[in-house]
Amino acid sequence: MKRFFRYLKLSFFALPLLAAQQDKPLRVIFFGDSITQAGVRPGGYIVKLGEMLEKQNLKSKYELIGAGIGGNKIYDLYLRMEDDVLSKKPDVVIIYIGVNDVWHKASHGTGTDPDKFVKFYEAILKKLQAANIRVALCTPAAIGERTDFSNQQDGDLNQYSQMIRNLAKKNGLPLIDLRKAFLDYNLKNNPNNEEKNILTTDRVHLNEVGNQFVADEMWKVLKGM
Amino acid sequence: MKRFFRYLKLSFFALPLLAAQQDKPLRVIFFGDSITQAGVRPGGYIVKLGEMLEKQNLKSKYELIGAGIGGNKIYDLYLRMEDDVLSKKPDVVIIYIGVNDVWHKASHGTGTDPDKFVKFYEAILKKLQAANIRVALCTPAAIGERTDFSNQQDGDLNQYSQMIRNLAKKNGLPLIDLRKAFLDYNLKNNPNNEEKNILTTDRVHLNEVGNQFVADEMWKVLKGM
Amino acid sequence: MKRFFRYLKLSFFALPLLAAQQDKPLRVIFFGDSITQAGVRPGGYIVKLGEMLEKQNLKSKYELIGAGIGGNKIYDLYLRMEDDVLSKKPDVVIIYIGVNDVWHKASHGTGTDPDKFVKFYEAILKKLQAANIRVALCTPAAIGERTDFSNQQDGDLNQYSQMIRNLAKKNGLPLIDLRKAFLDYNLKNNPNNEEKNILTTDRVHLNEVGNQFVADEMWKVLKGM
Amino acid sequence: MKRFFRYLKLSFFALPLLAAQQDKPLRVIFFGDSITQAGVRPGGYIVKLGEMLEKQNLKSKYELIGAGIGGNKIYDLYLRMEDDVLSKKPDVVIIYIGVNDVWHKASHGTGTDPDKFVKFYEAILKKLQAANIRVALCTPAAIGERTDFSNQQDGDLNQYSQMIRNLAKKNGLPLIDLRKAFLDYNLKNNPNNEEKNILTTDRVHLNEVGNQFVADEMWKVLKGM
């Protein structure tokens, strides 16, 4: 049922941004959780990226595909990478995961141990690199937007983000450091230390500003890939 | 450090039960968590199995190898199956896992979701079967020995055990139903509804009676494989 | 906000079942969590109890007051018993608590340790008895209706229910053993081992049959108090 | 058993720092968890405070009493305040609690909700103030000493510490801000961002430097009370 919905979403919202006449467009898969699942909905960050490409007359150069499923953790990505990524033969994969690995510790008792998080992340990278797919890594932006590190999961989000930064560095891969970018943005734009409604609607999922912000941050890296 | 310790354990305690002159012995790997890690220590269930074989003059027919690591969950087995199982080319693998998948929900917030437990279990079975390795599945015996289902994790242990029974049935594989066997034993031998000291020392890990009991239960199935 | 809603609820739905001309009606407070909060809504178990009283021409004998708040655990009852119970000078209090003490372990990491559950329960009983209020104790019915004890929280629910049974016995107080009653009902009426839709809508909250069932179980005890 | 051990500890280690001839010494109770329980052991922060008093010839002015029990959360303090604090008629109580309220979320599923933490804290303050006892409040120092807020519980510790700061301010009570003091110390003395061994032995409990540090921080406030 969930799978059905997902593919419906994908076939409905996936953005085959104009089949180029001569050049094959760069096929980019956004691989993640509910934040990415929402990215292909109207106003979502992947839709916004598509609009940005259109304005720059780059629409024919990129094919943007959302592959986000709500509740996914790193090992869910691992388990479905054959079906949802490798079989689609992308040129680029942008991995945006980690919120649930941390959050589900408190909400379900089924978060991911830090060392296992790294192991599965490395296993994913290994398979993507073996298929000559270029990869960019995102840090998990936020579970709560307070800027004084008093959001419940801040400690873990900082730790898991650092593990992702280390993975990017170790593997020579581009990093989209959303965690840092969100904090920097909130330090300027969240003077009352609110836990939501700056870049998120509910501490985690992106509001309109947040979707544009993520699209911008991703484009900074994607355009160079 | 942990890995080093493990291999030390294995080289020290693994039981290469006599290399048979003519017939190659059946190589059996016990693949699991701390209960199996303790199985290769003096008095452990794997050691006891070895002693049982010796008494029956079957020592030369079997090579018993412990591959248990404390704290392991189903996806840990998955992550290390290449190194610790496939590379050793066993004839038989006995999978004994599940306690930590349930227990770590409460103790670390990093248990395993039931659907992911099944997915990783299936992925392990698929790889073992692809390598023509025979497999037997164990249900997780106990986290607490009370017989009125008032041990905290009884609900989950019952659920995960049922998932393992279903996997065995679906894949036509032998089942060593330790969960059921422990309960049956306790119903007869634990009249005061104690939570430990019947088959375990601490609600989970096996005491001497428990190690012998597991060895017996395993032998019932192993001798037919 | 939550408190406002609660009192609105109470003033709106509390059932001042006819001020008797000569005899003061027995004032009964139902003290609990979201299940009791829903009890004063149309179709809720407290409303149904009121209807049962009306049919038996006992309406003037009882004043039924709901004092349930969603998410409450034993220590929430303790913290608000002055405001919501003692100040209302009831003759009888029916305590129906325990689901969240168990459930919130997994869903928020903030369940109640078993020994603290008993301590706060005893503190509540002590204060009620000091005020000469008669008390009946309910066991928490269910988090999931499967009958083979494979609902995740079954172990804890069985344990906490036993603690409540012990408290009733030790203090010589009437027990409304909903946990046992629900299981007995499901063993007869849930042949497919469904986790909901027999007496609950969502594994926890009562459907129409469930509300009537709880009203019936409560009446069996209440009529004798 | 636990209680027995506790009182043994207290009678053994409590420091009746010289019964003053003429002036009654200031009776100070340290009310907390395992950190305070260890405070009365050799090298513990309460013992060190006693030694500091002796060096300053103030031994006769103070009677220092440890009332710490391992694993305690705010509501444990509430439940035992009659026995362990009020009945001893102290002049001053120093409350040092919060680590387990946060930590037990992940390790037992039985941490304390933030709003309930405040409610029980307020209930304790109310009872102490009703008995004319002066109170000082401590923030929980650390679960992990990393300085980049990447310790798992940093988010919650920051939040709960802020709640304690607010309680101190609202009630006009002195604050011993160990959380801030530990961070400041680590920023200077933990250049490698280690998670322990600066002021703690195990991320939580105090090493010798930590015990002296806490004694110093407490004295700064206690001497003015």
Automatic annotation (TrEMBL), chains A, B, C, D:
<feature type="signal peptide">
    <location>
        <begin position="1"/>
        <end position="19"/>
    </location>
</feature>
<feature type="domain" description="SGNH hydrolase-type esterase">
    <location>
        <begin position="30"/>
        <end position="212"/>
    </location>
</feature>
<dbReference type="GO" id="GO:0004622">
    <property type="term" value="F:phosphatidylcholine lysophospholipase activity"/>
</dbReference>
<protein>
    <submittedName>
        <fullName>G-D-S-L family lipolytic protein</fullName>
    </submittedName>
</protein>
<dbReference type="InterPro" id="IPR013830">
    <property type="entry name" value="SGNH_hydro"/>
</dbReference>
<dbReference type="Pfam" id="PF13472">
    <property type="entry name" value="Lipase_GDSL_2"/>
</dbReference>
<keyword id="KW-0732">Signal</keyword>
<dbReference type="InterPro" id="IPR036514">
    <property type="entry name" value="SGNH_hydro_sf"/>
</dbReference>
<dbReference type="InterPro" id="IPR051532">
    <property type="entry name" value="Ester_Hydrolysis_Enzymes"/>
</dbReference>
